[in-house]
Amino acid sequence: MADEPLDTETKIKEAAQKVFLANGYEGAKIRQIADEAGVNVALVNYYFRSKEQLFQQIYFETFSSFLGVIAQLLNEETPFEVKVWKLVDRYTDFLLANPLMPMFVLSEYRQSEQSPVRQLKMKEMIRSTVFMRQLNDEIEAGNFRKADPFQVIFSMIGSLVFPFIARPVVTYVGSFTDDTFSVFVNERKQVIPEMIMAYLRVR
Amino acid sequence: MADEPLDTETKIKEAAQKVFLANGYEGAKIRQIADEAGVNVALVNYYFRSKEQLFQQIYFETFSSFLGVIAQLLNEETPFEVKVWKLVDRYTDFLLANPLMPMFVLSEYRQSEQSPVRQLKMKEMIRSTVFMRQLNDEIEAGNFRKADPFQVIFSMIGSLVFPFIARPVVTYVGSFTDDTFSVFVNERKQVIPEMIMAYLRVR
DNA sequence: AAAATATTTAAACGCTTGTTTAATAAAATT
DNA sequence: AATTTTATTAAACAAGCGTTTAAATATTTT
């Protein structure tokens, strides 16, 4: 990868992303962000006006990525079961590449009516996915048991995301290293789809 | 309930529990804890020496409760399937009564060798539960599919705990109120055991 | 009741925080 | 080349933080 010389604003943003994800809003200090970016403290406010605004920008982008990738995978035009397997596989890889994202997104979420996050219309996005439609169709056709699609989707996402949220505890209880944790999570690529499908197939 | 006049130390501790669980270590301020307890700021340090020590005490107790309740349920001497249903039922109720606990325990976890949390030997506790033994027996007897017990247990706990960790997002995407969130979680008392058992039964 | 100890308080301490200022350096415009 | 604008800096600011102090009050012990 060609690491071209980044302009100051980008350097700050990348440093902020790193520091905010590792420490959360309260735990992150502007001086730490500035140091990480190799830049004077004042420049953070010069480019982003305030810690709060910088955070909002980072949070919005992270949230969009976190739920956006899911929404995209849910919307693929592949048969239902294939999609479940593919989604779990792809999203596991995504989380392995961004292991701090789930905890950050879920622990730093703040509700406010006119927040950018709300304007994403994530609600409608998830509710109207191809995945949801297919699931409803299969249930109506009698191929799957009568199940609440929300229960199914949150079971799947929850199983997928949980190890990353609970990573320190999981690592401790399971005596994992970084490598064996990765193995553990990769094994779930098989376990989770099998679990979801086994549940749905029982009529 | 008879709310007898609490002594100062207890008042501070309960206030600290409340404030730490709601805001985390960095977000919690001693003056807020003191106010919540209706007590002078200096008394917090008088009784607990430092914010750090107060936090450690709260965290240890919360962690013990969070994992201890699970360990206890995993150790009940009931048949495997009955236990799965009972565990999900009881732990859901426990989480409904302590909705902030999972996020607090998982986001504020810090590893350190001689921490009180480590001395709980939670690892050995979970690994040697009746649940684990039963699961292994059933698999060896050919009644259940060949599954990694850790995968099963973390799928179950993860499904159980996830809605509480992701509550704001789940609430938003699902258009839940506090009441309908509670309904949603209670429905999982059936979904989760069925999912786990459906998975295990496929050979 | 007097003395000793424990509890509580208001005030201040020193440090870190996010933020701003005012001066300097660099770049762009004229 | 002179001027204006933009970028960067060191330094300071006020506010908030966890913590300590020293005096006042309450309680316990003698």
Folded structure, characterized:
- The structure is a homodimer of 203-residue chains.
- The first copy, chain A, is mostly helical and 203 residues long.
- Chain A is built from eleven helices and no strands.
- Chain A has helices spanning 8-27, 30-37, 41-48, 51-74, 80-97, 101-107, 122-127, 130-140, 149-165, 167-173, 178-201.
- The longest helix of chain A has 24 residues, at 51-74.
- The first copy, chain A, is globular.
- The mean pLDDT of chain A is 94.
- Chains A and B meet through helix 1, helix 6, helix 7, helix 9 and helix 10 of A and helix 1, helix 6, helix 7, helix 9 and helix 10 of B.
- The structure holds a DNA duplex (30 and 30 nucleotides).
Essential attributes:
homodimer; 203 residues; mainly alpha; DNA-binding
Global mean pLDDT of chain A: 94
- How far the N terminus sits from the C terminus of chain A, by CA atoms, comes to 51 Å
User: Biggest interface and its residues per chain?
Assistant: A-B, 48 and 48 residues
Helical/strand content category of chain A:
mainly alpha
The portion of residues forming beta strands of chain A comes to under 5%
SS field, number of helical segments of chain A? 11
Assembly category = homodimer
Q: Approximately how much helix is present in the residues of chain A?
A: over 70%
Note the main sheet of chain A: none
